[in-house]
Amino acid sequence: MSLVTDSTRNGVDTEKMFATLDLIKAQPELARFQFRARNTWLGGAHNRSTIRDLYAAGGEDSSRTEAFEIDAGEPAILLGTDTGPNPAEYLLHALAACLTTSIVYVAAARKVELTSVESTLTGDMDVRGALGVDDEPRNGFERIGVSFRVTGNAPEEKLREVVERARNRSAVYDVVTNGVPVAVEVATG
Questions:
Q1: Strands 54-56 and 34-35
Q2: What is the pTM of this model?
Q3: Interhelix angle for 87-109 vs 14-26, to 10°?
């Protein structure tokens, strides 16, 4: 359901959104963020990430009063006990969430009132690579499919334009489609 007032569209405070964009344009150093997660193995395929602290807009952000805890696991077919979605499923969730948020923000900026945004994501994977039984298949997804159903107060072509613009601005879509260097360090003992 959309929420619209003079300065709020789709639940987004558009005055604050545009003021934030203007501030970042004027002071690009404020655009540097560092998101963080800590993970602990709990046994078997069960592990838990804790997310709270982040660096944002020139300093440590302390606005979060509680940490988010996210459990991950594997289904029984992959030797787990269903303690949570598996990491690949979390990746699909992260992609869906980022694209959806981007759609909502782009629509708000373009004066489109949304009534619904729904998506279905599928990730096709040959697990032989990840399990180490065959070097031919890659370890991760071979393909990800995303299907959106978007409704609002705009014609079909405008809604499609909003989704396309959101895809072009989605941070997680960028990471998934372009990759990002990952540095892995190990401490023992």
A1: antiparallel
A2: 0.89
A3: 100
